[in-house]
Specification:
Length: 385
C-alpha cells in the first residue's frame, strides 16, 4: 500500500463523527497528498456507531483510511494491529490526534523507535466528566514520551509549554480547503433550504458540533426560543450528535419551538448545509481554534461566536462577525437579532470573513508547516541512527 516514491505517514484519531479535530486530520491528509508524503488516516473504532465516520469521509476524499477495532479502554489487540500496519506499510512517522490516539499510537510505534509528532487539540472540559479527568491526566503523562508537539491554538501552546517545557511545541493553526466551501451554487443553496423547509425569505441560523456540555447548545436554544416570539420567519438548525441530544431535544419541546429548531444529526454535506444558512452561531464555553468557524467564514457567512479560546483571533468584532461572552443568552439573542434586522451588515461581515480566511488560514499554509516538522523529525532520526 502507499506510493513507493513517497514517505508513508499515519495520522491517527479516535472520535465521533467528523467535527473539529477530525476535520483537521482530514484536511491535513488531503494537503499531504500533494507533497512528498503519503498519508494514511487511521481511525480507532469505539462503541459509538459514528466512530468510523472519519474513515468514510477520508475515503470519499480519495485519502487511504484504515479502521482499527478497539474493544475497551486499553486493548492490547489494537496495539498489535496498529504495530503490524506500521510495519507492513513502512510508516516513517506517526501523527496522533487526541489522548486515545496518543496512547495507542505511541504504544504501537514504540517509544523512540518511530518519529512521533502529536497534535494537541483542546482537552475536554474536565469539570463535566470525571472520566475525562482521568484521560486528560494520562494524556499529559504520555505526551512526555512524544518526540514533538503541535498546538492548534496559542492557548493550547501556552498550556503545553508550562506543562512540558523541555518539549519542542510548534504552533500550527488549523487550515481549511477554502474552495470546498465556495463551490456550492446558488441553485444548490436554494435546493437545500427547500429540503429543510426554509423559504427564500426565511432566516436560517445554524450551528455544528458534538452535542456535549462544552458546546453550550442550551444557550442557543434559549436564544432561539426568545427570537421565535419576535421574528416569524426565523428558523434554526443544530447539526451533529452526542450525549446531550435527548436533553436538547427535550429542552426544545419545553420551549415550544420544535417546529423552528431542527436536529439534523451527523452529516457529510457540511458545505451545502453551511451555504443554506444565513448566519452561523458558536455558543461554546470552551474552544481552541474551531475549524467549523473557519469553514463558515470561508463560505462567506457572518459568525456570532463566544469569546473563548482563540476565537477572538479569527473573529474581529463587527468586522468579520460578532463576539459575545459565553453563557450570555441576552447578548446572543441581541446579536442574532442585529444580523436579522440588518442584512447588508451581515453580508459585509460575511465577505470580510471569507477574505480573512483565504489570506490567513489556507490548507496550503497548514500543510507546509506540518511538512517542515515531518522533515525535521525524520532527518534527526536518520542522523541518530
Amino acid at each position: 500500500m502507499g506510493n513507493s516514491s513517497k514517505k508513508n505517514v499515519l495520522l491517527l484519531r479516535s472520535g465521533v463523527g467528523v467535527f473539529g479535530a477530525e476535520r483537521v486530520v482530514l484536511e491535513l491528509a488531503k494537503g499531504l497528498m500533494d507533497t512528498e508524503y503519503h498519508p494514511f488516516v487511521g481511525v480507532i473504532q469505539n462503541q459509538d456507531p459514528n466512530s468510523t465516520e472519519l474513515a468514510k469521509a477520508a475515503e470519499r476524499e480519495g485519502v487511504p483510511a484504515i479502521v482499527f477495532e478497539c474493544g475497551g479502554a486499553f486493548d492490547v489487540g489494537t496495539i498489535r494491529t496498529i504495530r503490524e500496519f506500521i510495519a507492513d506499510n513502512q510508516i516513517c512517522l506517526i501523527n496522533p490526534h487526541g489522548y486515545k490516539a496518543n496512547f495507542y499510537g505511541l504504544a504501537a510505534a514504540g517509544v523512540g523507535k518511530l518519529p512521533s509528532l502529536a497534535t494537541i487539540h483542546p482537552w475536554t472540559e474536565t469539570e463535566y466528566n470525571f472520566r475525562a479527568k482521568i484521560y486528560t491526566f494520562l494524556d499529559k503523562t504520555w505526551l512526555r514520551l512524544v518526540d514533538e508537539l503541535v498546538a492548534v491554538s496559542e492557548n493550547v501552546q501556552e498550556i503545553l509549554q508550562k506543562m512540558l517545557p523541555q518539549k519542542q511545541c510548534t504552533l500550527i493553526s488549523n487550515g481549511i480547503d477554502v474552495q470546498r466551501f465556495q463551490q456550492v451554487t446558488p441553485e444548490q443553496r436554494l435546493q437545500y433550504r427547500k429540503q429543510l423547509g426554509v423559504a427564500e425569505n426565511d432566516l436560517l441560523i445554524g450551528t455544528i458540533g458534538r452535542l456535549v456540555p462544552e458546546k453550550g447548545y442550551q444557550y442557543f436554544i434559549e436564544s432561539a426560543a426568545a427570537l421565535s416570539q419576535e421574528l416569524p420567519n426565523i428558523k434554526f438548525a443544530i447539526i451533529g450528535d452526542g450525549e446531550l441530544r435527548e436533553d436538547l431535544v427535550s429542552q426544545t419541546r419545553k420551549k415550544n419551538i420544535s417546529e423552528r429548531m431542527q436536529f439534523l444529526g451527523v452529516r457529510n454535506d457540511i458545505p451545502e448545509l453551511i451555504a443554506a444558512m444565513d448566519a452561523y452561531v458558536l455558543s461554546s464555553v470552551s474552544e481552541g481554534l474551531p475549524m467549523v468557524v473557519l469553514e463558515a467564514m470561508a463560505a462567506g457567512k457572518p459568525v456570532i461566536a463566544t469569546s473563548v479560546g482563540d476565537v477572538p483571533k479569527i473573529i474581529a468584532h463587527r468586522k468579520t462577525g460578532l463576539l459575545i461572552e459565553s453563557g450570555d443568552i441576552a447578548a446572543l439573542t441581541a446579536a442574532i437579532r442585529e444580523l436579522a434586522e440588518n442584512p447588508q451588515i451581515a453580508t459585509l461581515m460575511g465577505e470580510n470573513a471569507r477574505n480573512f480566511v483565504e489570506q490567513y488560514y489556507s490548507l496550503a499554509h497548514m500543510t507546509s508547516k506540518y511538512v517542515e516538522r515531518f522533515d525535521a523529525l525524520i532527518s534527526e532520526r536518520m542522523t541518530d541512527v
